Each structure stands twice: as structure tokens, then as C-alpha cells.
Amino acid sequence: FETADKLIRWLFSQPRGKHVVPWATLVVGWREAKPCAMALGAARSGDVSHLRPDARRPLLQPLAGEVADEVNLAVRQVIINLSAMPKHTKTKHRARARAWFEKEGQHLLGKIDCKIVIAEDGLRALIARSFACNPS
Question: Which residue among 28, 34, 79, 128 is least packed, with the fewest CB closer than 10 Å?
Fold first, then answer.
């Protein structure tokens, strides 16, 4: 997705609920990580009040099936990709990303797996592993 808004529009059109099988891997840059995590948190909780207004955003899909403590979404994993950043800033941004995840992101994502990568090789390996876990 080109923007977090486009991800949100797609995400809100996807089924959500106890019996939804997560299948998608979301790769985001550091700049998009927080708005995307907020969207995932909104889709999990049903509370969209913290999202920026978007007249083109569809209504959140109702929960499919019975209500559960954890709401499954299409997204199974989030990869925060820092590999395109200048080499001298990667360590600083990785520390910021980890701190953000521990303080805020973990709550928003729930059981959605989150990885932070600083090298293209690491990104390729995670994506390959994601495809291996999701044969089509």
C-alpha cells in the first residue's frame, strides 16, 4: 500500500473475528509503523476514534462469529523495515522502534507478530519465511 490510509481502507473491508485465519504480512517503514499499528488496534478493538478522519474509509466489518477476547485480522505479521535508512541512523531508529513497540505497539498489535529489520537480507529472509508459512 502506498499510504497508511490505503492500508486502513483495505483492512476495514476484511473480515475480522475469532475464526478469521491471519494470512497477510505487512511490511512498513518506520514512518508508517505507528499509523498502521493504530489501524490494526482499531480493527481489533472496534474503536476507530483514534484514527485520522478519512471520508473514503469504509465502515469496519462487524465481528464474524462469536465474540472472543482476541479478534483475529487478515494481518498475521508486521515487519518494520529500516533497511532503506542511512547506515548511521539505523541503530538509533531501531532503538526507537523497539521502545515504541514495548510501550505502545505491543498493546495495539496484540498477538500479531512484529519484527524490526535493519538489513535487506533480514527483510528478504522474513518475507520468504512468511510465504513458506502461507502456501497458496
Answer: 128
Question: Do residues 118 and 86 lie in contact, with contact meaning Cβ atoms separated by under 8 Å?
Answer: no
* pTM, rounded to two decimals: 0.89
Q: Which three cell numbers stand for residue 85?
A: 535508512
Cell output for 61: 466489518
What is the residue-wise DSSP string for 11-31? Answer: HHTS-EETT----EEEEEEHH
Q: pLDDT for 5-40, tens place per residue?
A: 999 999 999 999 988 999 999 999 999 999 999 999
95 forms bridges with which residues in the sheet? none
**Of 59, 79, 55, 49, nearest in space to 14 by CA:** 59
Q: Are 20 and 73 in contact (CB under 8 A)?
A: yes
